[in-house]
Sequence to fold (180 residues):
Amino acid sequence: MALGEYEDGLCLLEPILAETPTDRQLQRFRNGLSLQRINNAGFLSQLGAAKKMRAGCEDDLAVEPNNTNATLCLARFFGNATGVAGCSKNKREQYLETLKAKDEAKYHFGRVTAGVELTPDEQIAALQKSLELEENADVRLQLAFAHVQRQEWAEMGQFDQSLSCGLPVWHLIFQLIRRR
Fold:
């Protein structure tokens, strides 16, 4: 999708959300489009899009204070945004604590997706806990990524051990390429 198509989708969605501000499916769709727009935009455009996404999630919470989707969105925003866009580990933790009290499944998912530093094994454990509490396709997809990351970490550990044994770097790089 071209960047303009994301913007067009967001423009079409705004009046619908204005009529039904508590429709969580529409909010998730808006947030997904916003993330895609941010990921496909240049740096300066990313800042504006990120601020709009944050404002949308804050508006969702203002209309419906128990909206755990908006709370998760804000935890992820504050945990993953650049410093210029408003990154705040303290705010991320506040939103995660709110989730812990209101929706434990989203709390565990949020720990993984909101930039909390976890090892792959810790990510897998948190995601499995989330799935025990509530079945969710997004969590299953994130769990698959965590398993891949754990495998990559294991390969890098083997790479680090080989370096300490004095093997030539070109030999180690060739081994990593062959594994792919």
